[in-house]
Amino acid sequence: MAIAGFTKVIKHLDDHEITLSATGVTKPGDYHYIKGEGMPHYNDELRKGDLWVQYTVSFPAQLDEAKKASVKSLFGSS
Fold first, then answer.
1. Count of domains for the chain
2. Tens of pLDDT along 25-74?
3. In which domain, by residue range, is 51 found?
4. Euclidean distance between the first and the last CA atom of the chain, given in angstroms as a whole number
5. Residue 45 has what pLDDT?
6. Does residue 44 lie within any of the structural domains?
């Protein structure tokens, strides 16, 4: 959930797992980088670059009345 934090496990290209997490609001276009989890360096496969993750946040196209009321109660009506 982009507004309240999240934890997500993703599979890397070599099938090992990486955990991404955030504790606050994640905005569309935010970046996260993980040192040493990127692609191997040319001619030195033991040395790896950094992995950069850019977040895409999807919002619902519409909300039913109950969900609208919930959002308004959390954030106010303005």
1. 1
2. 899 999 999 999 999 999 998 899 999 999 998 888 899 999 988 888 88
3. 6-75
4. 22
5. 82
6. yes
CATH number of the CATH domain containing 43? 2.60.260.20
| The pair of three-digit structure tokens given for residue 34, joined into one six-digit string | 């993980």
1 within some domain: no
Residue 76, pLDDT > 80, answer: no
pTM for this prediction: 0.68
DSSP the chain: -TTT-EEEEEE-TTS-EEEEEESS---TT-EEEETT-SPEETTEEEEE--EEEE------S---HHHHHHHHHHH---
The answer to whether 52 and 41 are in contact (CB under 8 A) is: no
Has residue 70 been placed in a domain? yes
53 part of a folded domain: yes
User: Measured between alpha carbons, how far is 67 from 54 in angstroms, rounded to an integer?
Assistant: 28
